[in-house]
Amino acid sequence: MENKVILSERIKNITKVVEQLDISPSLYRNAVEKYNNLAKIKEFIQD
Question: Where on the tree of life does the source sit, at the highest rank (predicted)?
Fold first, then answer.
């Protein structure tokens, strides 16, 4: 359970960083999607 909370916080932090980048909306969506998918894979591996 604690790992999921930490992972959730990391996703929020990564999303904040990506939002502050000076990139196009399509590149932003692509980056967020990739980070979220990586987080899901990491969560799956840890379970």
Answer: Bacteria
Annotate 1-38 with DSSP letters as a single string.
-HHHHHHHHHHHHHHHHHHHS---HHHHHHHHHHHHHH
Contact 28, 21 (CB under 8 A): yes
- Report the C-alpha gap between 7 and 38 in whole angstroms: 11
* Per-residue pLDDT of the chain in tens (47 residues, 90 and over written 9): 566 777 788 888 888 887 787 888 898 889 889 988 988 888 888 76
